[in-house]
Amino acid sequence: MDWGIRNRLSRILRPDDGRTVMLAADHGYFLGPTHRLEEPRGTLTPLLPFADALMVARGLVRNCVEPSAQVPLVLRVSGGASVVGADLANETVITAMDDAVRLNASAVALSVFIGSEYEHQTLANLGRLVDRGIDCGMPVLAVTAVGKELEKRDARYLALCCRIAAELGAHFVKTYFCDGFEEVVAGCPVPVVIAGGPKSGTERDALATAYKAMQQGAAGVDMGRNVWQSDHPVPMIRALRSIVHDGATDDEAFAIFTRLKQSGHLQPV
Questions:
Q1: Could you give the CA distance from residue 157 to residue 162 in angstroms, rounded to a whole number?
Q2: CB atoms within 10 A of CB 160
Q3: What does the pLDDT read at residue 1?
Q4: Cα R_g (the chain), whole angstroms
Q5: Is the CATH number 3.20.20.70 carried by domain 3-224?
Q6: pLDDT at residue 198 in the model
Q7: In which element (H, E) is residue 141 found?
Q8: Cut 0.70: pTM above it
Q9: How many CA atoms lie within 13 A of 124 on its CB side?
Q10: In the chain, how long is the greatest CA-to-CA distance?
Q11: Among 46, 75, 86, 90, which residue has the least CB neighbours within 10 Å?
């Protein structure tokens, strides 16, 4: 792996433990103004000091993230479909690699829709993006998307998706947690980060998912709605960090969340 790619990856996956807490905020590229992300700057700014990376589209970077922010960017570069369109899987690359470099991105992200009508199209997108990434030292995150068909999130399907993405050259993969998740990780030769998906029932539920994923080999989490749709987003992301980087259990992390919530989240963990 080229030095530039390894250097950029080390900004996202912490070199001391190889893990990451990514903050997902790219939902607007297909969902529009999502609940509690209607005004992204106000929602995201308090969370950025606690995120190892921010996953976002270029429009939000330029309009809602201060250039002085030190958070590494994972830039969403695929799109072209919306939640009201015919098929969310009909994506292409909509952001040039040159623009990712101009924005000083640490990685670029693209969705693949394996098993859909657009499987070939999105996998070809990934292959070409990896080629461009190699040209300029940019890591590629493959997102194993399922569109509106959430029932596809089982271990056999997700293991297939992750392995194919890695075989095509993705440097790390984002996928869903599932029963048998350790099989997904075992079959994927690159780091696997879990998606948060729609907001869980409670913060405790989301923390339990994160803990189980880390115990079963995940390299980290990329959560959005389970953080910024919480009534207490800063305590929530700090509790996630305790699981990912400090080895806390879900019960310990929930105790941290509760303590920070009650104290106005100003005290150290």
A1: 9
A2: 15
A3: 84
A4: 17
A5: yes
A6: 81
A7: strand 140-144
A8: yes
A9: 7
A10: 51
A11: 86
